[in-house]
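In response to reviewer comment 3 from the previous cycle, which asked for concrete evidence that the modeling workflow produces usable outputs, we include below a single protein chain processed end to end. The sequence was submitted unchanged, and the resulting structure tokens are shown without manual editing.
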Amino acid sequence: MTVRKARVTCPLDCPDACSLIASIDEESNTLLKIEGDPHHPITQGFACVKTYRYPERNHHPLRPLYPLRRVGKKGEGRFERVSWETALDEIAGRLREVIGAHGPEAVLPYHYAGTMGLMQYEHSLTFFRALGASELQTTICATAGREAWVRSYGDRYGVDPEDVPQARFILLWGINSLHTHTHLTPFLKKARQNGARIVHIDPYENLTSRFADEHIKIRPGSDAALAYGMARAIVKAGLHDRAYIARMTTGFEAFMQVAEEWTPQRVEAVTGVAAETVERLALEFAQARASLIRTSYGLTRHPGGASALRAVILLPAITGAWQYPGGGALLTTSGAFALNRRYLGGAHLLAARPTPPRQVNMTQIGSALTALEPPIRALFVFNSNPAVVAPRSDLVQKGLQREDLFTVVLEQALTETTRYADYVLPATTFLEHPDLYTAYGHYYLSWNEAVMPPQGEARPNTWVFAELGQRLGLEEPTLYWDAETLARSLLDTDHPWLKGITLERLKAEGFLRLNIPRGFQPFTERACTPSGKVQFDPPPQVILTEPTPEFPLILMTPPAKHFLNSTYGHIERLVQGEGGEPTLLVHPEDARAFGALDGAQMRVRSQHGSVVRRVRVSEAPIRGTVVLEGTWWEKPAPDGKGINWLTGEHLTDMGEGSTFHSNPVRLEALD
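The workflow returned the following structure tokens.
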């Protein structure tokens, strides 16, 4: 056995973008082990429980290794092996037919962040934009949060995670960071050693709650009310920074007019947080000065989610926390990567169009596949598993079942979505293709070489679309770029934070920190908003997530420890680590009200459908809320149905984002 070690970057949708060390048996082309890179300042030598199992995913029996063509009916998942030449010729032929009969907008790509590498994540879209296909609005995760941050601060970055140890009071608000941002933990521990107090605000007790010094349970979707109540208490105590507010903000007076209405008693009635806790939390936050709010996109998964996030992230502007090392807020660091994105994914082709293409919101893909006129006739799915991860699974799977819908799926596993494919094309993993990676939880840019030959006949997404482009006679030159050409184009910028960062340096060093000065404190001199200041105006709305008499419980579906969306959902040891089947956390009082016994199976019903789940009676969720962790594959469920058979397609107040945590349900005994 000849074992080689190589540095790679984890490609998955996580803020940590870890640097990893892969151990590879070169004789058998086998990935033996994945470890954290000890030299990376964020990764610090360890990986999450999921990533340690990547060798099992890379070599799993459910990984397709050759092009497959459907035989039989859609949904049966029966295929025959064909050559790449046959698959590509036949797919190109079907595309010609669809475009000839219905126009290019009958074609739709469905994609998301199965890989975060810019080549395989975004540049694949060049093919579809060169065709003139319908455009997918990628709203399922971050758009509500992005809109909230941009309207408040403009620039999409915040406190440097490496400065977190300097914070003196930390609110982990709506983020289960020990599941979803594991590499923040060492920085939190250092902050605690330095005297910081850590408080977790979340509707249910989880691993992060137990790590924190205090857990404050809040009703789902009521975060704006708590933020306004804290703002009122801070100003009433005279702990707001008048000089910072006058110099760096607009609209504060109007914001406070709304906040004045949120007395501690009213906040308690709406949020479930005791009035005395609201006032104490506000004073602790303000008095610490170097206070940090680390939040994420989970609290935006509500009808008023974007407004709620705005209310939360504006709290550091009231106290002037941005002026103190470690103080401020952080949602994402993605806006700091000021790359030249002019040609990425054919962006220039969109800019040159006289009229914009048809837009399809991915959160509403079920309705789009079943009711959109004129219909989508050809669907390409890559980097995603919509049959399980999208809302309204009933509509999604009904749409995928259409015999008049030509579906091609590029995949690394035979997912539920592949069952409905006309062709399944084997995709490479991050170990098998080069790519450039940004991050949304730190300030390091990374380059991956391909460190293994592809398994079987797997090919990168962009290779597939370039081959189809040639067959269709597309002449757009950027469609045929390789990863190095794209990387050089992206790095061709005069922005000072990227000065001196070249592909050659990235290849030699693996990862490089952006040229952001150590100790950089954003939003102390300027904000990239229309006013140039932090904007309290217009005051955020309070739009509550409320149950109904028929469906009196709110269902939340936050991430599980052992899965990342539906990635890893077929890895047996991770499924067992998560308990073997999806279970529903139910508060004891709610369990008594519905006659639910611990360990028993119950039917969970929403206005959209029903699923069967085993109940775990627990005081972890706040009363009136039921929680199911993880986007499981359908097979482990008692009824073979995913949780998104219950979730709706309704959108957020800004950003047209998803609302996965705001679905009213009830429990029923099985017949």
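Residues 153 and 249 are 10 Å apart (CA to CA). We consider this sufficient to address the reviewer's concern, and the full set will be provided in the supplementary archive.
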